[in-house]
């Protein structure tokens, strides 16, 4: 009887954590859509500024998706704790591996977009105010100085 109660509690926790992950994804997508449409419909701007601001929106959406993937991995680990059969452990391993690979490539894409925005390849400095840009790193500052020299 205690075992049955424990399983119910753990499964409720699994569904609660999964729901939090779904909420994080939905929040990130909704925020990105609202920001994008606000960007398009509020005022006219140059193509370079539009590209730079869109990159910032994508970067923020990517952060939401990475967080949600980590939350989903946690939920899967919680679920597997109540049914540790080899079949479930194998499925958990496959799911975790797929999500880790997705996280890795999503994080690389976010870093590449961030570096592009800072280096000026997305023309961020031409279209955005300084307070709307991510802070410069020391490596970016050195690269910028070498291009100016």
Task: Provide an overview of this structure.
With about 150 residues, the protein is mainly α. About 85% of the residues lie in helices and about 0% in strands. The radius of gyration is 21 Å and the shape is elongated. The C terminus is likely disordered.
SSE diagram, text form:
Blueprint lengths: L1 H41 L4 H34 L5 H34 L4 H4 L10 H11 L1
Instruction: Give me the oligomer status.
Output: single chain
What would the principal axes of the Cα set say about the shape?
elongated
Largest sheet: none
Order of helices and strands: HHHHH
End-to-end Cα distance, whole Å, is: 75 Å
Key phrases:
mainly alpha, 5 helices
Quick synopsis:
This protein is mainly α. Helices cover 83% and strands 0% of the residues. The chain has 5 helices and no strands.
